[in-house]
Amino acid sequence: MLQNAEEEFASLPMFLRYLTMTIYFAAIKYLDSIGYRIDSLWSMDFRPNDSVSTTDEARQYANQVIKQAIELRDRESTKQQRDLLKQAIDFINVSYSDASISLDKVAKKVNISPNYLSAIFSQEAGQTLIEYLTFKRINEAKYMLRHTDMRLSEIAFAVGYKDPHYFSFVFRKVSGCTPSEYRRGTNSER
């Protein structure tokens, strides 16, 4: 707007006030559109006032507001990703025994695309969703091995594996011992 306005017009105090108000309300509207609560963090320092009297001050104000809006957008995006990750983990923690649980099923539950969930999970949790699910299942199986008299096949089904042999394979890969060895306590892991 400053570049397109004639020099005399751009330096008018009324125009500069209009410009700063436009920038401010555009930032507010944008942040509101992405679900950010403006009243909670939008500082009084960013509200336009009559002190802007030159085009350089107007540019400085615009840069300051845009920079703050970008920071708040990034913060909100990170918060939303963590909320989605928590929902996904909560669903897995409740549903791990469902043999049909998958990335697609979890993504559908939290209402995002599987690719986006996979990216969030890897970025925020430091492991893939399937790795998390596998470790959850194996940890539950370890508890059952040590605290119940259930047969290995029953434990495999209880933690979401349809095939007891595959369960034993995964258990050994994750734990470094077979389920039977773990139950007897003949491994180094306790």
Would you kindly provide a written description of the structure presented here, covering whatever features stand out?
By secondary structure, the chain is mostly helical. It has three domains: 71 residues; 49 residues, Arc Repressor Mutant, subunit A (Orthogonal Bundle); 54 residues, Arc Repressor Mutant, subunit A, CATH 1.10.10. The chain contains ten helices and no strands. Helix 4 packs across helix 6 and helix 8 crosses helix 9. The longest helix has 41 residues. The radius of gyration is 28 Å and the shape is rod-shaped. The mean pLDDT is 87.
> What is the string of helix and strand elements?
HHHHHHHHHH
Q: How much helical structure, as a percent, in the residues? A: over 70%
E-strand count:
0
- What is the domain tally? 3
Cα separation of the termini: 68 Å
Task: Describe the structure using short key phrases.
single chain; 190 residues; Arc Repressor Mutant, subunit A; 3 domains; 10 helices; 0% strand
Gist?
This protein has 190 residues and is mainly α.
Describe the secondary structure blueprint for this structure.
Layout: H1 7-10, H2 13-33, H3 38-41, H4 55-95, H5 103-110, H6 114-125, H7 129-147, H8 152-158, H9 164-175, H10 179-184
Helix pairs in contact: 2-4, 4-5, 4-6, 5-6, 8-9
